[in-house]
Amino acid sequence: MAGPSLEKWISDLGLQQVNDPDVDKPVYRLPPPDRRISLSAALEENICTSIREARERRNLSGSKLAPLLGLSEAVYARYETSVSRLKVGRLIHLCEVLGASPEELLAPLDHHLWGENQSKVDLLLACIDKLRAFDEETLQDVFSLLNRLERYVFKPVHIPPL
């Protein structure tokens, strides 16, 4: 199956071409509501800040966290200072040893991926946090409720003429 053309994909998602100095080819990003797109370097700085803040919220020093990741303190410090880039596997490992959700670490990077304003982002993340605590049966009930609500929220209302 061929799928949509590249141009259609870009258009449908509302992606915008960005010339990022850290990438030698044009890249496409989803512009946030304020229209300021974070470039690679800014995203790296934000992830460093996010992991440092998550570690600090848990009152855990870098010297205590590093061995949990199988790293020396100096190597771990490179992640928090943006000298080294985190790979996805290391990010998942960080979530495990910090007891953090991926959303906690990633949501601060580009809020617009979670909602159009900070209030919605905070609410969505709080809902996700609550959902994680439910057992499978309760999650199925919540999912069924959401499906029923969706039918009413997106269903056009027909008002008969008087």
Characterize the structure shown.
The protein is mainly alpha-helical and 162 residues long. The chain folds into two domains: 6-101, lambda repressor-like DNA-binding domains (434 Repressor (Amino-terminal Domain)); 114-153, no CATH class. The protein contains eight helices and two strands; from the N terminus they run αββααααααα. A two-stranded antiparallel sheet has the order 1-2. A hairpin with an 8-residue loop joins strand 1 and strand 2. The radius of gyration is 21 Å and the shape is flat. The model has no long low-confidence stretch (mean pLDDT 83).
Brief write-up:
The chain has 8 helices and 2 strands.
Quickly list its features.
mainly alpha; 56% helix; 2 strands; single chain; 4% strand; 162 residues; 2 domains; 434 Repressor (Amino-terminal Domain); flat
Arrangement of strands in the largest sheet? 1-2
**What is the CATH fold-level name of the largest domain?**
434 Repressor (Amino-terminal Domain)
Kindly state the percentage of residues in helix: 55-70%
Q: Which of globular, elongated, flat, extended, rod-shaped describes the shape? A: flat
What letter string, H or E per element, gives the SSE order? HEEHHHHHHH
Specify the number of helices: 8
Radius of gyration: 21 Å
CATH 4th-level superfamily of the largest domain: lambda repressor-like DNA-binding domains
Proportion in β-strands: under 5%
SS content category = mainly alpha
Mean pLDDT: 83
Instruction: State the low-pLDDT regions, or none.
Output: none
